[in-house]
Amino acid sequence: MMVLPEMTIGHTAYKTGSDIILSCSAQSKPAVSYKWMFNGAFLNEQSPQLSLQSTRENQTGSYACLAHNNVTLRFATLTTMIKIVEPISAVALNSDGKPPILDQSFTLRCEVTGPVDYIHWLMNSQLISLNNRTIFSTDNKTMVINPIQFSDRGEYICEAFNAVSNLTSMTYKLVVNFGPERPAVTSPDIAMTGQSVTFNCSASSQPLSQFSWFFNGSQVASGSVYETGPLTLASHGEYTCVAFNNITGRNSTVSKMLTVVAPVTMSIVKVIGAQPILNEKFSLTCETAGTVYSIHWMRNGWPLYADNRTDFSMNNNTLTFNSVQHSDNGDYQCSAYNPLSNMTSPEYRLTVNYGPERPVITSPDIAMTGHSVTFNCSASSQPLSQFSWFFNGSQVATGSVYKTSPLTLASLGEYTCVAFNNITGRNSTVSKMLTVIDPVTMATVKVIGAQPIADYMFTLTCETAGSIYSIHWMRNGWPLYADNRTDFSMNNNTLTFNSVQHSDNGDYQCSAYNPLSNMTSPDYRLTVNYGPDMPIITGPALGETGHSVIFNCSASSQPLSQFSWFFNGSQVASDSVYETGPLTLASHGEYTCVAFNNITGRNSTVSKMLTVVAPVTMSIVKVIGAQPILNEKFSLTCETAGTVYSIHWMRNGWPLYADNRKHFSMNNNTLTFNSVQHSDNGDYQCSAYNPLSNMTSPEYRLTVNYGPERPVITSPDIAMTGHSVTFNCSASS
């Protein structure tokens, strides 16, 4: 028999106070008996199960089950180790009492209540491993960071483990203390008397630093901000900020120099010595009040710099022109500066005294008798010059303006202006010649010799009065120049046409000029006499008996022609228009117009033929011979009355033309059908024409006669006795 013992247990490690049942079983026949042992000693238990109640740590040890077969005398043993462990009840993470300071050693301890198998350290939820700055004690309960850095800031925990429990500490927030580093002071470097200044001191530090302020070695304030009272010049000096960290025990110091200045309160430009005179030395000074660091000069708002004629004193407060010029004129200012204030002087207007330079006379060079002339004299000068006027050596006026009395030809001569500057003691003189002339008082165009006749010589002259310098001719308002048919006399007062033409017609004027006046003549209308040219008759070439005809005769001619009318050699009227009486066929013939020019003595003739016709008074279509029968010849004629030039035929309102079954007579008055057909049925008309009248006949209805063709009987083919039958007979005809 084989004994296979089995012992089942839940765990190998248990918390103190746990209830544990150990079970043991073995396959055997007959059934085995059981015994239990603890650490080699038999227990008073012979059942397959061993019950351990409210276990304590002293129950930790080796438990064995013995199975024995009383028949086979065999036994089997199975052993297991049971561990009863106290659970971890508390875990605390603490420093060694020394705060974490940058670049120093720092220690954390993991304090555990209860048995510990192992400990884990975590920073910001990440497992911490050993490195060159982090060291753990043998039991892992102590972690040393040496030296501590900013990168070590974070949240730290430790986790303690044993066989039956684990526990995590509260978070330890590690903040690295440092500083203070070198403070920074924010404040102005310079300030004005009477103002207050605020100093701000800051320093990078953990925890925040405490601040103290010192001025020239004496403490004046506590706190990061120090505001002075109103400044005086005695407030100038060194301001020191001391930052102190009561955790690191360190301090750091920085100083700031404050410069105190008085504001600029005055700036004005003044002249040193004599007034400015052209080409002489001249100086300006800038008077100021207040603390002045620098002075700048401006001319007309633009900065001024030294050059070969302009110098500045060492401190820039004096400006000297070695040889003052007109180009130096302008508005001068000086600006006084310190770093906190400045002042610009009012403008000093520099005007350089000079002259007079050579005067300039403005006046006409020429004037008309009876008029006054005003002479203006000017000379560039500072201050303004005084003026005197002389005519032909004798003084006539004082002042820059001289107006003459009404001029005569004796007023011609030399007028002199003398300019005098009572500051420079200089004078300058200039003269002007005045020419006096008479005005143009007449200009008119007149004919010399005969009136203008086409192809003959013709001459116009320009009569004038007054002083004439030149004469110009115009035609229709446009300047006129000599050409191969037109000549001017030497002084331009005569215009000659060698062969006057129609193209010379127009309005002619002459203009007479002198430098002060001119006159243009009234228009002279030039109209060249000619003709008559070949007359033109307007009127009909055809006339109708009983009607009158009007003939108009015209001929190009200057002056207008006189007209006469002749019919078949006999004079019938004297006028450009001739109206006949009611025409008869005897009125047919040649009508002649004669045009006569009583200036040129010429005449010209033209004739016109008049044809007289009688009106069309009748047009009718009639049948010639037999009535129209199908397939036989049939003729229609157009009977007319009056003068007929042409006849036209129509069928149903449309023009009718000859074809292989129809033809017309020579004069178109007869229409013949060679074999008349049903298709020729319709309404026929003829129209008779002459150039002045026409007439269309009434309609003639053509219906072609034919038949009868084979009749057709309509009736029943069969009938009943006692009934009547109706027969219908029809034939196309």
UniProtKB/TrEMBL annotation:
Name the keywords, alphabetized.
Answer: Disulfide bond, Glycoprotein, Immunoglobulin domain, Signal
* Classification via InterPro entries: Ig-like_dom (IPR007110), Ig-like_dom_sf (IPR036179), Ig-like_fold (IPR013783), Ig_sub (IPR003599), Ig_sub2 (IPR003598), IgSF_CEA-related (IPR052598), Immunoglobulin_dom (IPR013151)
Give the superkingdom in one word.
Answer: Eukaryota
Limits of the Ig-like domain:
5-79, 87-171, 180-259, 263-351, 356-435, 439-527, 532-611, 615-703
Per the record, a Pfam family? ig
According to UniProt, the name of this protein is Ig-like domain-containing protein
List the source organism: Coregonus suidteri
List the Gene3D superfamilies hit by this protein, alphabetically.
Answer: Immunoglobulins (2.60.40.10)
